[in-house]
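re: the backbone from monday

yeah here it is again, tokenized this time
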């Protein structure tokens, strides 16, 4: 057990291509977003006090023994202790995050990743990204039902990834860096609920939905080739195509569609919703010279928050 405080951070993320279809075995592409992050700090506490969890942003403080039922932080700590086969330490674990919640930016996965990594390091058993990702996936399953695993993977590896459910993760080489604007609708995107609705719709019309998933998978594969060969111009139309397919899946909203259209009209190379949809974020691919004017247009269209990031 470490005698000095230990800290771990994990970034946010956005999905560039392939959300929803990735749940059904299609490929998807995601990148970490380091401008926002979750941080976990853990330090020793007096003997016999057990593990105290403090979620400072949420004003919550409880011991593991008296955690609210189904609390995600307590579940994450418990999964980690069970995995490491180490008894509960006497310590205080504090979580902070600047990642907007339920916005498709991987807040839950990042908080869990920071927590498992800090706790494991504190206990003298630091985790490799693969192990951290697998633990966080266990937690994601408790809260989201059938997660594909893309969120925990991109957040734990902190690198652009090409992801196929159940296959080893593949790092993506970004031959030519490109700029994204991420605009938040300010409306929540309840991932589990939306994924559940898509599942029920697919049960009613399997051929139609599987055809849409196949098309989304093809777009993600083309995007991979474009990213790896540095053909940034090709990415814009592929984002547009992916957004149309997500509309057909029924996971967009009029506000998301407005922001996507606004970005395109203001000069973006392409735009789409990102994540589970309904609310949450959209992303726009921009040339650096046009970034300010697209950002201004998105603000005028009532985007609740904007992040500009370079993918490399
Ligand atoms: O957590 P979000 O909102 O980025 O959504 C995750 C992406 C989905 O494909 C919709 C679900 C999944 O588990 O991959």
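seq for it, each position gets an aa:
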């Amino acid at each position: 057990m470490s005698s000095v405080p230990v800290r771990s951070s994990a970034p946010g993320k956005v999905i560039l291509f392939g959300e929803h279809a990735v749940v059904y075995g299609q490929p998807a592409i995601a990148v970490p977003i380091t401008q926002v992050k979750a941080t976990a700090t853990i330090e020793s506490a007096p003997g016999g006090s057990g593990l105290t969890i403090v979620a400072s942003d949420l004003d919550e403080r409880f011991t593991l023994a008296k955690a609210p039922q189904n609390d995600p932080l307590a579940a994450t700590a418990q999964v980690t202790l069970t995995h490491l086969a180490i008894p509960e330490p006497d310590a205080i674990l504090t979580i902070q995050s600047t990642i907007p919640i339920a916005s498709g930016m991987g807040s839950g996965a990042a908080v869990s990743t920071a927590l498992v990594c800090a706790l494991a390091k504190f206990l003298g058993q630091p985790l490799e990204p693969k192990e951290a990702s697998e633990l966080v996936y266990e937690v994601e399953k408790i809260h989201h039902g059938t997660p594909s695993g893309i969120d925990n993977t991109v957040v734990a590896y902190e690198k652009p990834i090409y992801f196929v459910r159940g296959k080893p993760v593949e790092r993506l080489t970004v031959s030519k860096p490109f700029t994204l604007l991420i605009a938040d609708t300010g409306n929540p995107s309840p991932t589990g609920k939306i994924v559940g609705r898509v599942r029920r719709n697919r049960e009613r019309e399997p051929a139609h939905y599987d055809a849409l998933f196949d098309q989304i998978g093809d777009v993600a594969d083309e995007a991979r080739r474009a990213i790896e060969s540095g053909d940034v111009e090709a990415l814009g139309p592929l984002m547009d195509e992916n957004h149309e397919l997500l509309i057909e899946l029924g996971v967009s909203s009029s506000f998301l569609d407005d922001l996507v259209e606004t970005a395109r009209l203001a000069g973006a190379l392409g735009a789409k919703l990102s994540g589970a949809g309904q609310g949450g974020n959209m992303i726009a691919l921009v040339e650096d010279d046009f970034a300010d004017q697209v950002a201004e247009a998105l603000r005028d269209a009532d985007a609740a928050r904007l992040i500009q990031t370079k993918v490399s």
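The pocket of PMV is lined by residues 15, 19-20, 22-23, 104, 147-148, 150-151, 189, 191, 195, 275-276, 280 (CB under 6 Å). The longest helix spans residues 206-229.
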